[in-house]
């Protein structure tokens, strides 16, 4: 199914006058503070967040999976789902594929299909954490770090193949999340494993087109429970530095030990020109992959404070980071969840843009933490929802995407189309 | 020094028209949603937060202390400081004393002094985590749990003496935070220590006036680093249950292991009628005692969601909890810090009051987590600052307390009065 | 396959003289310290650890599963596998079943089969965290706590059915691990959920035979990632207390927040007479379900220190706890892993038995933490492996179970019997 | 006081035959396994651990301090205390000074004094986390990272002065632990702070003699509670890499977030040739600074597994790390605590030396985690105390240092000499 512009316009009609009042009030206030509201809204509109193909179906845990219905049965239907989101919020204009789950049978057709939704293909993702049916060697004990040359070569070849698929689709980057690790003390020779991983990554890096970037994720645990080869940003940064100028660290919010100051990691990576991208989600305990902003919206805002500071610094050498959601939807409707996530990201971004940076720097220089806190809180406490809604309205999207999604009974219609028992490919 | 009403009125004048516009906008919106704005503001006004006497000076860590200036040199000056806060926000109408640091020399005089600021005396706090100069026995190895009967008796007697001081001042509750614990495996017989603690608490409980309450805090570590006798709410609840109807658990936000779901603990205690009180602060790593709302404002809101739900439940048997800030001000001006803390508490309370509870229950009953999240976020994302400001305005307090505090150069004047090297008694 | 006594005897022959020397040395030393070595070995021999039926196959994570081979295809083969373990170590004389995975088709036959291996049936486990094919209602949003009466009734009925199966097999207890929880703030009304859970448990409790016990597990998170209904021992203890004398808390080592002092929880529960049983495993990050003793053997020893103290206290009202391993074997051969786990438990138990308790109490009474530490470390640093080996030798088991397992090529033979692709029922 | 050799010899006499039996048994077993026991004991003997001057008195927490007695009142007496330890264990042959607490008035005299005890001066430590009485600028808001040039210069100058003191004493390295950080979001510009820190460190590095090393510590929090400038090994490594070949990372065991895999960090740093040194202690919750090995002896062993692997790797470019205890003694006698710590380090080192590395590598290469675990556990479960005792015996030290310390009533004599109220300088 597709959502047509008329429906959106008519749905917007119901809340338009309310919205206009709220927007007038807020833009008036910001105007008087010297904020260029139009420029502000343009920044919001330009900020596009990629949707991962694997987040369109119901996820699960090791204990079980409770499927919803109407899940996309093919790559085409995954593109359709992202198209639905983008029609509703005009902020999800990219899809990130996972190989081998999403190998297109007809590249041109799928590109045209995506284009018809206004979508492009973001970073491609390789998978060396599962064994595929026809696979010669198992990744049970690792892939790029494996003790056996044959396994490493298979994993390298897979990544090179992913790059070829991505090239055909117009992607410009490869994200490597390496599950490799160990579950028992003694199991792995840490130094050899790291060296082998670096050597493997070098071959992948060498196989990338000149205009591509390589994103190296880190994660402290899971699916292995004692060590992971790339346990933290320091290890990822070390690898990316050895690999070269087009290798970067990718930060996934859920991939940190309890209490980690993630915003400082972001700042450090941007200072080094090595922040490649972001996987947004939220969590309370581990890599819980929950809706962005559902648990710690202030932390998200603090991270955007660093991102905005880095992006707006004219001396920064850091390329514009890649933005992607990486979540798992065990309980909520995946599309509702993604709409909530995108909105939470936009709110945090908008609030971070509102921070009075000259006065913040002044407070910092004069060591006035109370004032610095006031300035951050002033931005965070501002109800910026009318700005996001206005950005959507101007882009032809819904003032209230989730309400529109529910009013249109999208899920019901998807179930009618695809069945109640469809399972998203790859899950 | 005292802040006179005229100053506040004149300071308010500068932002009055701005405030009126914001308040009109917000109250209009809430009106249309069916919120009784006046009743709402009355609830905010009635919500008073006690200030602990030990939070008025500069705190420190084991590594050092960097004093500010103008710290209160006596109990009278501590009362004055809380009076300053209360004059600015009309939300800090109580002071919580710590014995032996705050033993009044003339009870009637100090009561009259407090009354002149509009202050009452909240829970009194005992101290068995430090040795006082003239003390017969050391608390190095515990107090109420100590292996020696003489030490336990000394600690019991101290608590009874604290009750007597509190009675004279009009307090109605005793807060017992027990540092008792151990730093090494094997050091302590857990069961004997818990039994001795219970026995000691029984004697204290028996010594309380009939209309008093006993609050039992819990904390997982610090100042001992392996175990504490009352390590969690479960242990505190067990003790409070054994003690009787007037014994309750007190929750200090910083006294939890990483990732604890504190709001659920609050809900469980209220369900049992056993939540006695709250120590507000914020933290990232441990018992950091930072400004309330400075790190995790959404968590604070979620906690108030439970508190409001419990307080507004007509079937609840839980008495109205005691509200207190418990923070340590190592870097900020203590009074600015406390103004920020009180405001953060008020904002969280106001947002929690705004939650559309009937629809929330409906979402819960129909297992719609996306909708439940929308409802919570709608309340939390609302900029409720105009409501708090209006509550203050109506009570004769400052629209913007910190700005008023800075405009009046309160700290400068306190330093002139008390000197740059004054150290708050007890620190 | 079965392991016959002759093989074990002949395998023992290879290391017998080495063992005799080690045992002679150690028993000589202990003798001189006044330890009754024979009594000691009898205690070790009597300590039997139940094996859960679900730990006999390869486990997995949400990211995938890398199966081994020769996994048991039926309840009979699961009993056979535990029989193999018990033949090798004579310390795994019980099996704990999981319903509906392990419903016996012929109860008498399976009882006879188990008896032929020297095995009894330990606690039975219910499953309300997954949906079974023919199930009327889904547990997606909980079971005993569910908002819908029909779902709760279904879950209650399932537990009652589990009891009936257990009764037929000779079990004497039901373990309830409740996955119930929520993944998003606001999703669940904490108080109502806890009340409904208590009400449901009351019906199950009422349906137990008079000589049965109910074990209530707790867990802070997973498979839900914001809250669980029974988040900690305090909640479990509260439920068990309300239920009655035959309801107890069950401690699973992996079900705690970071840094929790588990040994103190054990001590408190035993003091209250409410420790029902134990699920042994080890972990670094969460509920990692790794081999017992693989990560934190000293913590395990400290827990046994409390267990032994509680078990040997003549005034204790706590019944003898149920001992069970609860682990997941993603990488190792499940049977090797279980042999390692049992040995680690035995070592910790033996070391805890060696603690010089009178002197420890003396050190505690005189507040001498250095001495208390010396006494614990003296026991833990003692190489007690010869004692465990001797206990095995006397019981007709292998001096070195894993070596025997490997020498006999058990896994190879199981693969021959059952195939390389067999998957343990339930996984 | 000094401990004379005769006392030790006579004290050893009491347990000599017991020791000889144990040693004979163990060395016989190791012999048969092909271990070169004499070479082994030489390695143990050569392993010397520096004692920090600040660990000789009673430490405290922010809540209080419970002093013992007989604390060293001067640098001379601190040297005496380390001399006492070294006499007892012949493994504490170095002292690490802290400036300004330990500025020697007569360098030659103190060097001679140390030499008379067989002691050398290890790394010197600077202090920019406290304000000294005569100091021009405050470190309240940082030192090397401070926004003010004058404060940074003062901190740089202090470090250069520390180097000069160290040079005079024969030290060869400077340890910089930088408390610098922030307690509130927004307070600090992370990137500027890190840049300023790097610039300041460059000046200190430039001021070091050619044969000196600079050790850069990291720590995630405390005394600041939101961020620290050098929050993790990645940041320290980044700074050390920028500084040059003689700058290294120093690992303090207590300076990590919960669940960090420290042993892997050690392995990574050694692989990069960047592990400069070690601060040993133990902890359960944070930087608890408890006795080494008191909480997590197996983790300590796993760390030594990596250290030994790195040290014995002929291709390693990592210089021999500096070994130091960094602990705080709040409850135990500081000297007893240090004796326990040194012994725990020696035991972990000895066990790590016992690991059968060829077979471990074989298990790793063949992905056999059960076997790898067996090999590590075999080493860790071996009671190596007789080897350490034998090393001490051969070096003229006590077979049982703590027993000797108690038999000699050292503390009692120190109190007689120095008084019950002496406070160690600097505390």
UniProtKB/TrEMBL annotation, chains A, B, C, D:
The keyword Isomerase applies. Keywords: Isomerase, Manganese, Metal-binding. Residues 104-288 form the Xylose isomerase-like TIM barrel domain. It is an enzyme of class 5 (isomerase). Its EC number is 5.3.1.14. The keyword Isomerase applies. It comes from the Bacteria. One of its GO terms (molecular function) is metal ion binding. InterPro entries: L-rhamnose_isomerase (IPR050337), Xyl_isomerase-like_sf (IPR036237), Xyl_isomerase-like_TIM-brl (IPR013022). This is L-rhamnose isomerase. It comes from Lunatimonas lonarensis. The lineage of its organism: Bacteria, Pseudomonadati, Bacteroidota, Cytophagia, Cytophagales.
């Amino acid at each position: 199914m597709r959502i047509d512009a008329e429906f959106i316009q008519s749905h917007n009609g119901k809340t338009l006058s309310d919205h206009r009042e709220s927007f007038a009030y807020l833009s008036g206030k910001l105007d008087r503070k010297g904020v260029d509201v139009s420029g502000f809204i343009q920044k919001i509109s330009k900020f596009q967040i990629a949707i991962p193909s694997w987040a369109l179906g119901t996820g699960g845990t090791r204990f079980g999976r409770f499927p919803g219905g109407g899940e996309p049965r093919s790559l085409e239907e995954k593109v359709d789902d992202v198209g639905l989101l983008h029609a509703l919020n005009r902020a999800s204009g990219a899809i990130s594929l996972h190989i081998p789950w999403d190998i297109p049978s007809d590249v041109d057709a799928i590109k045209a299909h995506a284009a018809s939704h206004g979508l492009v293909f973001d970073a491609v993702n390789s998978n060396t954490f599962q064994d595929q049916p026809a696979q010669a060697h198992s990744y049970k004990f690792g892939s790029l770090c494996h003790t056996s040359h044959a396994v490493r070569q298979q994993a390298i070849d897979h990544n090179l193949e992913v790059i070829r698929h991505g090239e055909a689709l117009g992607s410009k980057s490869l994200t490597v999340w390496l599950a490799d690790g160990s579950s028992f003390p003694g199991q792995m020779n840490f130094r050899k494993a790291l060296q082998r991983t670096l050597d493997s990554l070098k071959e992948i890096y060498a196989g990338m087109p000149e205009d591509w970037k390589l994103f190296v994720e880190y994660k402290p645990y899971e699916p292995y429970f004692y060590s992971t080869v790339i346990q933290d940003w320091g290890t990822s940064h070390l690898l990316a530095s050895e690999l070269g100028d087009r290798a970067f660290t990718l930060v996934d919010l859920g991939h940190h030990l309890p209490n980690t100051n993630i915003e400082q990691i972001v700042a450090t990576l941007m200072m080094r020109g090595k922040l490649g991208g972001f996987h947004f989600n939220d969590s309370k305990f581990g890599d819980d992959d929950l809706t962005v902003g559902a648990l710690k919206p202030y932390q998200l805002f603090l991270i955007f404070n660093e991102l905005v500071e880095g992006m707006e610094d004219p001396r920064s050498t850091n390329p514009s980071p890649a933005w992607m959601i990486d979540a798992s939807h065990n309980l909520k409707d995946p599309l509702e969840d993604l709409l909530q996530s995108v909105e939470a990201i936009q709110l945090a971004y908008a609030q971070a843009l509102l921070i009075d940076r000259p006065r913040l720097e002044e407070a910092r220089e004069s060591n006035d933490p109370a004032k610095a806190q006031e300035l951050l809180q002033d931005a965070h406490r501002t109800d910026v929802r009318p700005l996001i809604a206005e950005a959507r309205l101007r882009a032809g999207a819904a003032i209230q995407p989730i309400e529109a999604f529910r009013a249109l009974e999208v899920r019901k219609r998807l179930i009618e189309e695809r069945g109640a028992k469809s399972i998203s490919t790859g899950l």
